[in-house]
Amino acid sequence: MEVRQAAPELGVVVTGLDLREPLADPVRAELLRLFRERYLLVFPGQELDADEHVAVAACFGRIASEGLAARHRVGYVSNHRPDGTLGSTTASFHVDYGFFERPYEALSLYGLEIPPRGTQTWFVSGVAAARDLPPSLRARLGGLVARHVVDVASPAGQSGVRVREGRLDETYPHVLRPVLWRHHATGDEILAVWEQHTDALFPMDAAASTALIEELYAHLYRPEHRYAHDWHEGDLLIWDNHALQHGRPDVGTEAPRTLRRVCVGADQDLSIFAARAAARP
Asked: How far apart (Å, rounded) are the C-alpha atoms in residues 93 and 217?
């Protein structure tokens, strides 16, 4: 096994392993150590079926189920599969199901179909951003909580404030958590505001909340906190869904783009979305 940094603040690229084979205990322990320290593992050039993908992800915790109706261990992020999610549009930075109390602990994606022009997934480290907060900015965050709500992102392509639409109504999921959130396993501080779901900081008035969120975004999304992964077929990525946020550019519809997804952590209660989907005309 060989390991090199993916980016200065997050991620490692791991080569020399065939993940179709069972991992020896020392290898599993080393991968978990790297995962806890760097939060993203990149395994290029793998040939994994769905069961093998699940087996690798299970090294990092309990496999969660996906889907609104039938619950499955495996899902797809695709711009053309009828069972795929998220289509082709831009996704701003977010934590999957970050508007629930217990978001997935880890996510994994495997490259099945990659467009000839390429495609990316972006990552940013909330841990690195918390670690190098300027003291004057950190001093303003004591006691503040952020509200994370579902489906509030502004339309793709708009500049400026991306997430300031506010809550849709009382029935939609939302959660409050400290702006400086402690990691469930490592205790590391995480700067827990993200473009797609954070709409307010409390206790602050609306104008002050908006201004501070934008100041935190300017610090959080600096280039040194980021990594952009250029996908190839056979790439497997596993990352910490609390420590890192992820997003992507528009992927278009000219060529298929399909990533197989396996999640780790608690199952998410998606009944509200199932009920709303069933109620659509």
From this structure: 10
* Region 2-279: CATH code: 3.60.130.10
pLDDT at 278: 55
For the segment 143-201, what is each residue's pLDDT rounded down to a tens digit?
999 999 875 444 444 433 344 455 556 667 789 999 999 999 999 999 999 988 898 99
**143: DSSP letter:** T
Q: Distance of CA 118 to CAs 157, 245, 251, Å?
A: 20, 21, 9
Report the predicted TM-score, pTM, of the whole model to 2 decimal places.
Answer: 0.91
- Measured from the Cβ of residue 82, the count of other Cβ atoms closer than 10 Å reads 6
Residue 4: name the closest of 50, 59, 42 by CA. Answer: 42
Could you tell me if 165 and 158 are in contact, meaning their C-beta atoms sit under 8 angstroms apart?
Answer: no
Whole-angstrom Cα distance, residue 167 to residue 199?
8
Beta carbons of 246 and 123 less than 8 angstroms apart: yes
Q: How far apart are CA 101 and CA 61, in angstroms?
A: 18
173's tokens = 């999921």
Measured in degrees and rounded to the nearest 5, phi and psi for residue 213 equal: -60, -45
